[in-house]
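Lab notebook, bench 4. Still working through the backlog of constructs that have no structural model yet. Next entry is a single chain of 88 residues. Request: give me the structure tokens for it.
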Amino acid sequence: MRELSASEASRNFSAVLDEAERGETIVVTRSGRRVAVITPAPRANGRALREVLGRWRGNAAFDDEFAAEVRSAREAVSNDLDADPWRD
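Model written out:
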């Protein structure tokens, strides 16, 4: 975990974001006190949702309405939705 003053973080914000993207956590301080923590953003993962829904498939404990909602959710899941529109 890296610690930077607010002034340092401001001057090097692009580099701070690059570090966070690589998995680093950065603590930002002001007058020696912690004021913020910049951490890597969690990545959405449709695969995890698909796995959960797959485990539920065929379970007789669920009613028909719930099963229809699960089917609808499965149809809405797409790898395209997990794509980062800002990455080339």
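Notes after review: The chain has a mean pLDDT of 84. The longest strand covers residues 33-38. Flag for follow-up if needed.
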